[in-house]
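Hi L.,

You mentioned the student needs an example of a multi-chain input paired with its predicted structure. This one should do, with 600 residues in total across all chains.
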Amino acid sequence: MAGGIIVACFLVIALAGPVLAPHDPLAQDLGRRLSGPTRDYPFGRDSLGRDVFTRVIYGARISLVSGTAVVLVATAFGIVTGMLAGWNGGWWDESLMRITDMFLAFPSLILAMAISAILRPNLTNALLAIAVTSWPAYARIARAQVLTLRTRDYVEAARAEGATDAAILTRHLIPNAVAPILVQATVDIGNIILISAGLSFIGFGAQPPTPEWGVMVSEGRRFLMDQWWIATFPAIAILFLVLGFNLVGDGVRDLLDPRLRKL
Amino acid sequence: MNLLRYVARRAGLTVFVVFGITLITFVISHVVPADPVVSYLGEHAPPDLVEKVRHQMGLDRPRHIQYLFYLRDLIHGNLGISIMDNRPVSRDLAQYLPATVELSTAAMVVAILIGVPTGVVSALYKDRWPDQVARVFALGGTSLPVFYVALLLLGLLYSRLGILPGPGQLGIYTPPPPHITGMVAVDALLSGSWATLGDALQHLLLPAFVLGYYSAGLITRMTRGSMLEVLRQDYVRTARAKGVAEPRVVLRHALRNALLPTVTVIGLVYGGLLSGAVLTETIFSWPGLGRYVTNSMISVDIPAVLGVTLVIALIYSVANLIVDVLYAYLDPQIRYT
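Structure written out for the whole complex:
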């Protein structure tokens, strides 16, 4: 519940960003650099005199879009792979699931760093790299779902009516397999936002002057003890957005796991 | 017998996966747009020298031949020469790996020390305020940006208050212990250098806490879930009915059984810690694999990047293998699937 409210707030902030933001996220004012929070600049100014409040608002867009984009790509790819493996079985299953295992063996941050370093570090490459390491989880879930659903009566009925494999998969299996995939996605999205901020922080993701939260923390690290507002506000934004998604994920999981609900 | 067959099958799969990992790392490293020869020699190197080095590195051969050479070297434990420091990558890894293992293990201990009690309290007081506090505390761990927390704690406890030592494994005036395992605290303990041990532990405290708190969330969640499951079992009710004291019921009867699934999660968490160490090491100037890999990626040092990625993926796969085998050992149902 609380998680839903937090996520909804961030969604509003991200959507209404340009209206809510009082200033230009890139406008510099070197004369008043590092000045603390005031009424017009509630989060203070950074080392180039930019408004931290405005930049945090714009950062919400970047983080939400990043998280959603990665999850969408990963689920799409994972569902296709998992369904192909589970539906066709045999050789398909063995080879696709072994490939999945290989990608699952890579710690996501390391592989993401390697990919984004090699392909030139920027946000798109970082997100691509995170997607490459996130899809195996969805492939496994989708496969497991297909294996349990394929023997259901309604699948048999559809087949008896002469439905093609493709039709059965898209019309009957995917809609019924979606719940656990959704749970995984909500749990994942917070983690993805965290990883992409971390990648940006060490310079393998979004690059300055992008108002991305990880970049902002990195830019503010030198001033953390004196001009604390530069790094702290974006860090708090990361904390709340990720916490929001984690709370939602927790809630959805409890809701869908009847064993836990009974207790 | 069944267990043995399961272990053999699972180990065979791991070998296959490791083989695939070498292929993936190789492919990734060879789509690199930056020319490693140029980044090694500098942009103004004479063309004939560039050709010569290219030949030395084997980069003028067809891709599949390069991969076979790579595999052959790998089997001999040869991971190539680092472009950055001109030393064998295997030697670099041997030098940097112990620091990472030390940090991850310490973080693991922290994660267990935080995670298990929090999970137990959370389960005992389900849906009451201690449970809510414990869950928020655990979720906070998985939601906090590690890099900011590390910076903040370092700034406060070291720069401002001077309670804890700064970055690195040892203070500059502390004599390093003799090299035995490469893990500073362990070496100090083994050689009986108590002053060094104290200093090493103080340096370890903050990074291990930062890294461990992150993983504590997962352990809390697992412990809570399995405690709830176990607490409603008949044998717990029997123990209570017999008049066994509540702390003993919780610790001896419930927790012991509830910890089984948690133990298996710990292997997975350990793999996660190894990669989570990257961010932590960068901030704490910890001379481990994380810092090594960051530096080699910045200078497009392909043999080094390949080596680290491979070693970490290897540790990860072996950890997974151990977890699966452990699980099969603890839960006979698994073996037949």
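You could point out the following to them. Chain A touches chain B through 48 residues (CB under 8 Å). Chain A has a mean pLDDT of 85.

Best wishes,
N.
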